[in-house]
């Protein structure tokens, strides 16, 4: 890793040489692209490393007939709940407000109550990584950074 420290220092200096407005614009673009990448992973029901999500638990036999279940996290991946923000110092993709707790439970595989009126008190959820970084994301970030550095 020590051989990359000189490169990292040089890259940091190049980014610092951009104006704050340019850095903010670059970070916002990176955040938007990261969100799109994460949304695509959630839509495909796979973790950032490409492994599929753990399957849902089987529902009780006496469930409503004819009900078609949506894919997991269909609403969670919308722009309303998955926020992308860029400042002059960082690019952030996060879950907003009320869904943040549910996303944390599923991301880390924690225990939670399924609903207020549930007979089951606490259910252990399987870990389903919702947000993460992989090689494609790193290439995407690098290409955006290089395009902004070439313009500046």
UniProtKB/TrEMBL annotation:
List where Basic residues composition bias occurs. 55-65
Read off the InterPro entries from this record.
Answer: Phage_virion_morphogenesis
Full protein name: Phage virion morphogenesis protein
Q: Region annotation Disordered: residue ranges?
A: 39-65
Upper lineage = Bacteria, Pseudomonadati, Pseudomonadota, Gammaproteobacteria, Enterobacterales
The record ties this protein, via NCBIfam families, to: tail_comp_S
Q: Pfam families, from UniProt?
A: Phage_tail_S (PF05069)
Originating organism: Rouxiella silvae
């Amino acid at each position: 890793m020590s051989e990359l420290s000189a490169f990292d220092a040089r890259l940091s200096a190049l980014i610092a040489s951009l104006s704050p407005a340019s850095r903010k614009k670059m970070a916002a673009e990176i955040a938007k692209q990261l969100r799109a990448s994460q949304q695509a992973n959630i839509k495909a029901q796979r973790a950032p490393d490409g492994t599929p999500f753990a399957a849902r638990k089987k529902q009780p036999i006496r469930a409503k007939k004819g009900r078609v279940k949506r894919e997991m996290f269909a609403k969670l991946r919308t722009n309303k709940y998955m926020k992308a923000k860029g400042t002059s110092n960082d690019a952030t993709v996060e879950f907003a407000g009320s869904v943040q707790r549910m996303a944390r439970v599923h991301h880390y595989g924690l225990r939670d109550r399924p609903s207020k009126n549930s007979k089951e008190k606490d259910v252990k959820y399987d870990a389903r990584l919702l947000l993460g970084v992989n090689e494609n994301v790193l290439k995407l970030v690098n290409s955006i950074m290089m395009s902004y550095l070439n313009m500046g």
